[in-house]
Amino acid sequence: MIQKQIPKDWKEIELEEILDYEQPNKYIIKSEILVNKSSNSLPVLTANKSFILGYTNEQEGICEKLPVIIFDDFTTDSKYVDFKFKVKSSAMKLLRPKTKDVDLKFIFLLMQTIKFNSATHKRYYLSTYQKIKIKLPPLQVQKRIVSILEKAEELKRKREKADKLTREYLRSIFYEMFLKNNFEMKKISDICLKVTDGKHGDCKNLESSGYYFISAKDIFGGTMHYENARQITKESYLEVNKRVNLELDDVLITNSGSIGKTAIMTDKEKVNKTTFQKSVAVIKPNKKYIVPVFLRSYLEIMGSNLVNQSTGSSQKNLLLKDIRDFEIPLPPITLQQKFVSIVEKIEKLKEKQKQSKDEINVMFDSLVKQSLNGDLI
Description:
Blueprint: E1 11-14, E2 19-22, E3 42-45, E4 52-56, E5 68-72, E6 78-81, E7 86-87, E8 92-97, H1 104-111, E9 133-136, H2 139-179, E10 185-187, H3 188-191, E11 192-197, E12 212-214, E13 219-220, E14 223-224, E15 230-231, H4 234-244, E16 251-254, E17 262-264, E18 274-276, E19 280-285, H5 292-307, H6 320-325, E20 327-329, H7 333-372
Parallel strand pairs: 3-7, 12-18
Antiparallel strand pairs: 1-9, 2-8, 3-4, 5-6, 5-8, 10-20, 11-19, 12-15, 13-14, 16-17, 16-19
Helix pairs in contact: 2-7
């Protein structure tokens, strides 16, 4: 295969030639991370998907030399930051340009295209990552590329804003239909057949068995995700599922670590091949009283009240007793079903939005690739 030549005024160099790194030790918070933001608080950051872990009121040891790239030394994830912050741990590097002929945002965008295998649990920046070679254009070209890609990023932000408005619209409908009225309040245990959780402890892995051992990390966006879920032997599945006995329309809520995420079991093909770790609670609605979509929506919208009952200092846990005792309004079934029909229409809209979002992401990735290979400028 013929290697494409870079433009004559571009240079092929290693990252360490243009980036300085700093250990983050002096920016690590000393107090507990706060959940809520105040007027004087600063964000506490991580380089992985979580990004903003919470906030702190500490006013010393603040990272103020900006912009900067925060780089996770174990996962190689990175974030571009142009606001003051603190960090939680030392498992990262802070990257800044060594010279004035480098646009840091350009380097960050370029780093997003680097495919890197970080399977082993070790620090990567000094050992490997800084040795990676990149194609660096002149500063003016870097800035023009960043300008083009920032316009594409704006499209992504608008798409995300539309997604947020859709969620807020559904919440407002729920509030108008159910929360403004004084419906009788009932404990979940009174209107559901069972509340349980998954297996306490681990069980044997088996790759590509087709039997899934779902944990809290596999539930997000109102859906169960199987692509990165662990798989176990059929024998282990049958043993574990005695506790859960998963059925269609069971409502799921994460109850350990990242608590309060919800979903409904709707996959007919996987319902008899799915069970759970302890970090997922399973609620079986009594459909004489409550519609599963209504129950999940209430847990999603009002779940912060339930989350506040969680226990534990380092890792939060939601007790089954707290879930069973959690009270929800009980409107007439006909009204619940009317809400379900509205949800179904909004889900169709969300599916179209997802398709649009995917198309924008593909376009953005293509623009990034063309720009950084010298094909766009």
